[in-house]
């Protein structure tokens, strides 16, 4: 016990020290020579670890891009400035999962605690990007009487359009897909802004509503006792919250289920993330209810779902399949050693390091067992998702609709591609943000650029749905395209779901 006490004490001190050292390091100026070395390091690691690096860009073109950026580095930069220099080149590889980690400021436990007691500056609004314009779509707290549909023109006298252009260059999509960037930038716009400008207590904004411009000073407000108590209550994990995977940060559930009519003929399942948490129990209970109700139609909503667990989508598909299926093709690696480059001890504190060291032999043999060399000489990784799976006893046999949009990414695209190929569902909405023909993700090698210290996670596994590939370098195209407008969002009108309900009614 005494040894554990000293280990715990070391964890606390090392945590405080690492935050301070990191924040100082991220602003230190780095010589052009060392920055160019970081560029070479990043490219060499990509060539070594990424199994599909030249999928959407030729080697010659990518060589030229890395050479070109080195030629433009002629003055010292700090890590943040260098990130904005190098990430646009990484984005041009056009792999949605591939991105440098922005070296944002880290906060001490004391600072985090203080921020938890305050409301966000921009986080109290919902908003939507349209081209180079940003519109507020919801103002729950009625802050400064800002109406839905109001455009945000500038922040502290800097045009919002300038930020949109700058941040858009940082975002990867898969191949020629064009639907992903607006959704993703919509979600991370203020993350980029805060990482670049820091957390502000106030900001001067200029807005435009019905041709009238207005200047407003937004201020960060403290939460009252009632709001703090509600947050405390929301964080308590009830059985319902566990099964539906409650997310306290957004006060919402990752999974939800309901019937959309009195007769329970239309079942609706919303999945915001394939997190894997309690998913097996959720699907077991949900499809048992659907079967007992003898529902004839099922709507699965995976809009704004960035993906997650392959195991979860394989399990979900087993409740939709009418015969045994294989979800994904054999998963390719660059070499048999790739699984051992996942930085097993990454970010482990002294206590975690001790336990992980004890578990390492089991981890080593597990990884070694799951790698094999195919007849084609390529290294592959064994996964249960590339083996045959039987349909569940309570599998749904009626008509399935799936709602998708540009924010349906990664695992959401994999299951959408498979469902469409097997003609098991009607896809409604817009082209998915993730590619129809798969992606590179699975597990990652967390590299760190030696001089700028920027983290660079690189996917090691080629994950592709078990379909005949279209080679169009696009997302999964819906069977029925229905595009929502800005006004639809403001009016909370779900035109995509409405199309499905009208289609069901028309065919009854």
From TrEMBL:
Q: Which Pfam families match?
A: Peptidase_S41
Question: Which organism encodes this protein?
Answer: Chryseobacterium taihuense
Pinpoint the Tail specific protease domain residues: 236-470
SMART domains assigned: TSPc
Its name, as the record gives it, is Peptidase family S41
InterPro entries (UniProt xref): ClpP/crotonase-like_dom_sf, Tail-specific_protease
């Amino acid at each position: 016990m005494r040894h554990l006490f000293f280990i715990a004490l070391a964890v606390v001190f090392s945590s405080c020290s690492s935050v301070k050292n990191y924040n100082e390091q991220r602003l230190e100026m780095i010589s052009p020579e060392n920055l160019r070395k970081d560029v070479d390091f990043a490219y060499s690691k990509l060539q070594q670890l990424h199994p599909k690096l030249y999928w959407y860009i030729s080697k010659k073109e990518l060589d030229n891009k890395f050479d070109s950026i080195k030629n433009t580095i002629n003055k010292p930069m700090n890590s943040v400035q260098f990130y904005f220099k190098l990430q646009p080149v990484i984005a041009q590889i056009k792999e949605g999962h591939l991105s440098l980690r922005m070296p944002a400021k880290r906060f001490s436990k004391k600072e985090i605690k203080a921020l938890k007691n305050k409301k966000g500056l921009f986080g109290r609004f919902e908003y939507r990007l349209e081209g180079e314009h940003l519109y507020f779509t919801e103002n729950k707290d009625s802050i400064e009487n800002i109406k839905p549909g109001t455009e945000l023109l500038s922040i502290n006298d800097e045009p919002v359009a300038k930020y949109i252009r700058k941040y858009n260059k940082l975002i990867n999509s898969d191949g020629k897909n064009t639907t992903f960037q607006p959704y993703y930038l919509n979600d991370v716009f203020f993350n980029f802004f805060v990482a670049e400008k820091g957390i502000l207590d106030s900001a001067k904004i200029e807005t435009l509503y019905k041709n009238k411009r207005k200047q407003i000073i937004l201020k960060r407000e403290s939460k009252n006792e009632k709001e703090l108590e509600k947050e405390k209550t929301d964080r308590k994990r009830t059985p319902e919250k566990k099964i539906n995977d409650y997310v306290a940060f957004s006060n919402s559930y990752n999974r939800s289920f309901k019937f959309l009519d009195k007769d329970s003929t239309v079942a609706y399942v919303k999945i915001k993330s394939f997190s894997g948490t309690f998913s097996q129990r959720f699907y077991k209970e949900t499809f048992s209810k659907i079967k007992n109700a003898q529902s004839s139609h099922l709507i699965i909503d995976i809009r704004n779902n960035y993906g997650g667990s392959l195991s979860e989508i394989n399990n979900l598909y087993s409740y939709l399949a009418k015969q045994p299926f294989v979800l994904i093709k054999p998963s390719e690696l660059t070499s048999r050693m790739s699984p051992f480059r996942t930085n097993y001890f990454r970010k482990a504190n002294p206590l975690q390091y001790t336990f992980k060291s004890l578990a390492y032999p089991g981890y080593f043999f597990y990884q070694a067992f799951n790698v094999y060399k195919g007849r084609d000489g390529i290294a592959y990784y064994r996964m249960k998702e590339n083996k045959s799976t039987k349909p569940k006893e309570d599998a749904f046999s009626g008509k399935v609709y799936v709602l998708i949009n540009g924010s349906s990414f990664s695992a959401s695209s994999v299951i959408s591609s498979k469902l469409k190929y097997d003609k098991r569902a009607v896809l409604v909405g817009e082209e998915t943000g993730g590619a129809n023909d798969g992606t590179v993700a699975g597990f990652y090698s967390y590299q760190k650029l030696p001089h700028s210290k920027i983290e660079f996670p690189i996917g090691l596994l080629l994950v592709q749905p078990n379909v005949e590939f279209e080679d169009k370098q696009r997302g999964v195209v819906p069977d029925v395209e229905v595009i929502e407008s800005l006004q639809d969002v403001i009016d909370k009108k779900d035109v995509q779901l409405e199309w499905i309900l009208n289609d069901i009614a028309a065919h009854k």
